[in-house]
Q: What sequence folds into this?
Protein backbone atom coordinates (compact mmCIF):
# COMPACT_ATOMS: atom_id res chain seq x y z
CA UNK A 1 0.00 0.00 0.00
CA UNK A 2 1.88 2.98 -1.29
CA UNK A 3 1.26 6.24 0.55
CA UNK A 4 -0.75 4.62 3.36
CA UNK A 5 0.32 3.84 6.91
CA UNK A 6 -0.87 0.92 8.94
CA UNK A 7 -1.32 1.27 12.67
CA UNK A 8 -1.73 -1.67 14.99
CA UNK A 9 -2.63 -1.74 18.66
CA UNK A 10 -0.94 -4.45 20.70
CA UNK A 11 -1.62 -5.48 24.26
CA UNK A 12 0.32 -8.39 25.73
CA UNK A 13 1.43 -9.58 22.28
CA UNK A 14 -2.13 -9.75 20.88
CA UNK A 15 -3.04 -7.69 17.90
CA UNK A 16 -6.33 -5.96 18.55
CA UNK A 17 -7.07 -3.66 15.64
CA UNK A 18 -5.68 -2.50 12.29
CA UNK A 19 -6.42 1.01 11.08
CA UNK A 20 -5.56 2.16 7.61
CA UNK A 21 -4.79 5.87 7.54
CA UNK A 22 -5.12 7.14 3.98
CA UNK A 23 -3.29 10.15 2.69
CA UNK A 24 -5.59 12.99 1.70
CA UNK A 25 -5.46 13.89 -2.00
CA UNK A 26 -6.02 17.40 -3.29
CA UNK A 27 -5.95 19.69 -6.30
CA UNK A 28 -5.85 23.44 -6.86
CA UNK A 29 -8.19 25.51 -8.99
CA UNK A 30 -6.28 28.42 -10.52
CA UNK A 31 -6.69 30.99 -13.27
CA UNK A 32 -3.38 31.74 -14.97
CA UNK A 33 -2.43 32.63 -18.51
CA UNK A 34 0.88 32.34 -20.33
CA UNK A 35 1.95 35.94 -20.90
CA UNK A 36 4.46 34.88 -23.56
CA UNK A 37 1.58 33.44 -25.60
CA UNK A 38 -0.32 36.71 -25.08
CA UNK A 39 2.70 38.63 -26.39
CA UNK A 40 2.94 36.35 -29.42
CA UNK A 41 -0.77 36.67 -30.18
CA UNK A 42 -0.64 40.48 -29.92
CA UNK A 43 2.37 40.64 -32.26
CA UNK A 44 0.56 38.43 -34.78
CA UNK A 45 -2.56 40.59 -34.52
CA UNK A 46 -0.50 43.74 -35.13
CA UNK A 47 1.01 42.22 -38.28
CA UNK A 48 -2.38 41.14 -39.58
CA UNK A 49 -3.93 44.55 -38.87
CA UNK A 50 -1.20 46.26 -40.91
CA UNK A 51 -1.67 43.90 -43.87
CA UNK A 52 -5.46 43.51 -43.85
CA UNK A 53 -7.26 45.22 -46.75
CA UNK A 54 -10.10 46.80 -44.75
CA UNK A 55 -7.75 48.18 -42.08
CA UNK A 56 -4.84 49.37 -44.27
CA UNK A 57 -6.05 52.95 -44.64
CA UNK A 58 -7.34 53.32 -41.10
CA UNK A 59 -4.80 53.87 -38.37
CA UNK A 60 -5.38 50.88 -36.09
CA UNK A 61 -3.08 50.48 -33.12
CA UNK A 62 -2.69 47.73 -30.53
CA UNK A 63 -0.62 48.76 -27.50
CA UNK A 64 0.29 46.28 -24.79
CA UNK A 65 2.39 47.06 -21.75
CA UNK A 66 3.34 43.70 -20.32
CA UNK A 67 4.68 45.02 -17.01
CA UNK A 68 1.53 47.03 -16.29
CA UNK A 69 -0.72 44.38 -17.90
CA UNK A 70 -2.55 47.09 -19.88
CA UNK A 71 -3.98 46.62 -23.37
CA UNK A 72 -5.23 49.45 -25.57
CA UNK A 73 -6.99 49.11 -28.93
CA UNK A 74 -7.56 52.24 -31.01
CA UNK A 75 -8.95 52.82 -34.49
CA UNK A 76 -10.62 55.49 -36.65
CA UNK A 77 -14.17 54.21 -36.16
CA UNK A 78 -16.26 51.61 -34.37
CA UNK A 79 -16.23 49.17 -37.30
CA UNK A 80 -12.43 49.19 -37.54
CA UNK A 81 -12.16 48.80 -33.75
CA UNK A 82 -14.53 45.82 -33.85
CA UNK A 83 -12.45 44.23 -36.64
CA UNK A 84 -9.28 44.84 -34.64
CA UNK A 85 -10.82 43.15 -31.59
CA UNK A 86 -11.93 40.17 -33.70
CA UNK A 87 -8.41 39.76 -35.08
CA UNK A 88 -6.95 39.87 -31.58
CA UNK A 89 -9.54 37.41 -30.22
CA UNK A 90 -8.82 34.96 -33.05
CA UNK A 91 -5.06 35.16 -32.47
CA UNK A 92 -5.44 34.70 -28.70
CA UNK A 93 -7.68 31.69 -29.20
CA UNK A 94 -5.31 30.16 -31.71
CA UNK A 95 -2.41 30.58 -29.27
CA UNK A 96 -4.37 28.82 -26.50
CA UNK A 97 -5.23 31.89 -24.42
CA UNK A 98 -8.85 31.87 -23.26
CA UNK A 99 -10.66 35.05 -24.33
CA UNK A 100 -12.42 35.15 -20.92
CA UNK A 101 -9.13 36.29 -19.41
CA UNK A 102 -9.31 39.54 -21.40
CA UNK A 103 -11.26 42.23 -19.57
CA UNK A 104 -12.03 45.18 -21.87
CA UNK A 105 -13.82 48.37 -21.00
CA UNK A 106 -16.35 50.29 -23.05
CA UNK A 107 -15.58 52.06 -26.32
CA UNK A 108 -14.42 55.62 -25.59
CA UNK A 109 -13.83 58.55 -27.92
CA UNK A 110 -10.16 59.48 -28.37
CA UNK A 111 -8.36 62.43 -29.88
CA UNK A 112 -8.51 63.06 -33.62
CA UNK A 113 -11.92 61.45 -34.07
CA UNK A 114 -10.60 58.01 -33.13
CA UNK A 115 -12.14 55.52 -30.73
CA UNK A 116 -10.32 53.54 -28.05
CA UNK A 117 -10.96 50.50 -25.92
CA UNK A 118 -8.73 49.69 -22.94
CA UNK A 119 -8.46 46.68 -20.73
CA UNK A 120 -6.21 44.12 -19.12
CA UNK A 121 -5.66 40.39 -18.74
CA UNK A 122 -7.09 38.90 -15.57
CA UNK A 123 -4.98 36.40 -13.66
CA UNK A 124 -5.80 34.78 -10.35
CA UNK A 125 -9.16 34.16 -8.73
CA UNK A 126 -10.79 37.01 -6.82
CA UNK A 127 -12.24 36.44 -3.36
CA UNK A 128 -15.80 36.77 -4.67
CA UNK A 129 -15.22 34.17 -7.38
CA UNK A 130 -13.44 31.92 -4.85
CA UNK A 131 -16.47 32.09 -2.56
CA UNK A 132 -18.76 31.34 -5.50
CA UNK A 133 -16.68 28.28 -6.46
CA UNK A 134 -16.56 27.11 -2.84
CA UNK A 135 -20.31 27.50 -2.42
CA UNK A 136 -21.03 25.63 -5.66
CA UNK A 137 -18.72 22.76 -4.65
CA UNK A 138 -20.30 22.49 -1.21
CA UNK A 139 -23.77 22.32 -2.77
CA UNK A 140 -22.74 19.15 -4.62
CA UNK A 141 -22.76 17.29 -1.27
CA UNK A 142 -19.45 15.60 -2.14
CA UNK A 143 -17.19 14.66 0.76
CA UNK A 144 -14.56 17.31 0.08
CA UNK A 145 -12.77 20.05 1.97
CA UNK A 146 -12.60 23.40 0.18
CA UNK A 147 -10.04 26.00 1.21
CA UNK A 148 -9.90 29.51 -0.22
CA UNK A 149 -6.30 30.62 -0.66
CA UNK A 150 -4.87 33.74 -2.31
CA UNK A 151 -5.53 33.52 -6.08
CA UNK A 152 -6.59 29.86 -5.91
CA UNK A 153 -8.99 27.36 -4.35
CA UNK A 154 -7.74 24.05 -2.91
CA UNK A 155 -10.03 21.03 -2.87
CA UNK A 156 -9.09 17.97 -0.79
CA UNK A 157 -10.64 14.58 -0.18
CA UNK A 158 -9.59 11.12 0.96
CA UNK A 159 -10.95 9.52 -2.22
CA UNK A 160 -9.59 10.36 -5.65
CA UNK A 161 -12.90 9.38 -7.27
CA UNK A 162 -14.62 12.17 -5.34
CA UNK A 163 -11.96 14.60 -6.56
CA UNK A 164 -12.57 13.45 -10.15
CA UNK A 165 -16.28 14.21 -9.70
CA UNK A 166 -15.40 17.66 -8.32
CA UNK A 167 -13.13 18.32 -11.32
CA UNK A 168 -15.92 17.33 -13.70
CA UNK A 169 -18.30 19.64 -11.87
CA UNK A 170 -15.87 22.59 -12.03
CA UNK A 171 -15.29 22.06 -15.74
CA UNK A 172 -19.03 21.96 -16.43
CA UNK A 173 -19.69 25.31 -14.72
CA UNK A 174 -18.86 28.78 -16.03
CA UNK A 175 -17.51 31.16 -13.41
CA UNK A 176 -16.52 33.89 -15.87
CA UNK A 177 -12.82 33.02 -15.71
CA UNK A 178 -10.68 30.44 -17.47
CA UNK A 179 -10.04 27.90 -14.72
CA UNK A 180 -7.28 25.29 -14.69
CA UNK A 181 -6.77 22.31 -12.41
CA UNK A 182 -3.23 21.97 -11.05
CA UNK A 183 -1.30 19.99 -8.43
CA UNK A 184 -3.53 16.91 -8.51
CA UNK A 185 -1.96 14.66 -5.91
A:
Amino acid sequence: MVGERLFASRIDGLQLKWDVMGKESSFDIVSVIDMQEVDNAINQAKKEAVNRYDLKKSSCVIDFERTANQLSLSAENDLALKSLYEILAAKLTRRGVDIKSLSLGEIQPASGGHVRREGSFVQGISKETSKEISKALKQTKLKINVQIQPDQVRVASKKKDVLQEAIGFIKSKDFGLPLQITNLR
In short: Residues 35-121 form a domain with the Alpha-Beta Plaits fold (CATH 3.30.70.990). Helices lie at 35-51, 78-94, 127-138, 160-172. The chain is about 30% helix and 30% strand. The longest helix spans residues 35-51.
